[in-house]
Amino acid sequence: MRPKSSCPKESRRRSADLQPDARDVCCIIEPPRSETGSLKASSPLAVSPLPVFAQSLCASTMAVALVLLLAAVATDAVLPPRAHVSFVFDGELFTAAANDFKGVTPLIARHFSKDGRPDVIQDSSPILLEEADFVGSALDSARRKVLFFFSEPANEFNVEERPQVARVASVCQVVAAPTHARQHQTRVRHARRPRPLSCAAPVGQDDVGGAQILQKKWTSLVKTTLRCLTPFRVLRDVFALAPPEGADAAHTLFYAIFVSQWSLRSESAVCSFRLASLRAAFAGSYRSFDTAAHLWSPLLAKSSYFGQCGLEGAPHANLEEVKRTFLTGGPVAPETGGPLVVSAHLRYSRVAAMSVRGADGRRHQVLFLLTESGLLHKVFLSARGPRLIEEIAVLESGERVTAFVLSTAKGLAFVGSWRAVTAVPVARCSAHATCGRCLLARDPLCGWSQSRKLCARLEREQPKEDKEHLVQLLEGGDVAKECRGEGGTRPVNNVVARANEVVKLPCDKPWESSTLTWTSSRFRVLPPHLFIRSDDGSLNFLASGDTVGTYRCQAEEDGYAETVAGYDVVQSGAPRSVCADCAAGVPAESSSPPTALCERRDSRGRPVGVALVTATCVCFLMSVAILACVRRKSAARHEGPPRAQEGKCEFGVSEPRVELRQLTDTPT
């Protein structure tokens, strides 16, 4: 039991890893002593407070720390991510975190072990795990294993510069797990709670350490390398997508985000790995570390006890071999042979996935990729390649993502920041207003309802008669045939612009993969010296007699075209050539509206403008004259008595005069 303390609660240290000789920050905990000075074995610890000056110093230090913390929060300071993972399974706590103050010595441990088993930690060898940055964890209950995903510097290449690589470490899980045991996983960094990969674990031996060496240390700890694509080697996030109910847990897919260690650009890649591949790597060949030469060498003979549970009674020689051999011989390749998604302009930091059954009855995978700035991408993994369905700016400018959780049961993706938590629907079918947009979005969660004439969400328990009316073209098809003219017409917007005014006609993509095309009633092909196409799809030009007319923006894909926007640009003021016709005596009845506007401007606007300019010039000249007169009078006062001809102000330019005076030494 922890002894009671008379110090305030705010001043107590809450760390659980205090050493036996450690002292509290604001108070000293000492064991009570008898009158002779000996320790009392049966008495609780007594608490003696610090002196008054020490308590004042501690309070001042805590106040300064609190002010710094509040200042960091007020300025939206980005705190470094905590590279640790922890979760609870069947009442036992598994942790993977740093064990020192600097945060560079990693440690995988099991706490609160049940049935009288001792707690287990990893061996203190520096080569076992070195500067590991943990990003996720998962359970393989069928094999009684716990998987930890992290990145660390690689020592097996025997080079001076140690590159970062992605790893997966495996340790034994529990002695026995009942079928009704449910996992409660808390990932401190991402706060996800995926279900275990299997419903129950068979009864067997557990990892409690060795008898003579590796006592209370992991004897089942092994690790392997994940390879995605060069130069993407650093692991940022992992998500475990469990197979459908009733399927083998070996078909579990792990979607991982990789970034480059040396690249300064914002780029990333996403790869998938199957659990069966990880199991095969742990059951394959290994490398052994030579402590004398400090080199890794492949192990020729295969041993059946590497990564296995129940080595408590193993011989001493086997445990020595286990202590030196914990790295597999080769990396694990991606499931598809290469990356699923590669982004050269965005660095993804969070990933989530869900499996969806489409209208055709087949299952499709959808990825949700999130950047640190809060830009969410919904990607459909089709047979023809990844397809971006939707892009959503979840957070405001300047905010950073702190958590990302996908709830398939609620159909929401939760994005957390320091200020708020935002819930985003996994499917926004109502955003696709027309049949063509709904089908070309290629969203496995949405389909076009021919009876209701709208884009509807595919429900899990939808009746069969309703499913027949939902149309999907996920892998391609004739959109024009399926829609049958249900695209609708877009209204034409009138735009009035003055001469030489910059006109911008906006046009947004109705679906992400569409191609925008502008057409004009005056040009077959828009000349590049008159028109500029922006990256956002808008059309820019100067209003003139050559550029007025009707413009239409169309979205095209796979032979299907749909008008997105239409504009009719007219000019409010005609150029001088038209005004010349007005002055030449063209009748007002036969003149166009711009000519009539020109007549009103010539008859009324021009005299008023000339009078205004003339008055401004006269006022300016008078101000200059008054200022010159004032300066002349001021200079005359400083020079002495005024002369006869200086009584009046002359506006002519006079030659400068230089007057020399001799100073006498007459005493005052």
Q: How is this structure best described in words?
A:
With 668 residues, this protein is an alpha+beta fold. The protein has 4 domains: 1-58, no CATH class; 85-342, Methylamine Dehydrogenase, Chain H; 346-483, ligand-binding face of the semaphorins, domain 2, CATH 3.30.1680.10; 492-572, Immunoglobulin-like. The protein has a 5-stranded antiparallel β-sheet with strand order 6-5-4-3-10, with no helix packed on it. The chain has a 4-stranded antiparallel β-sheet with strand order 7-8-9-11, with helices on one face. A 4-stranded antiparallel β-sheet has the order 12-13-14-18. A hairpin with a 4-residue loop joins β26 (446-449) and β27. The chain is extended and about 110 Å long.
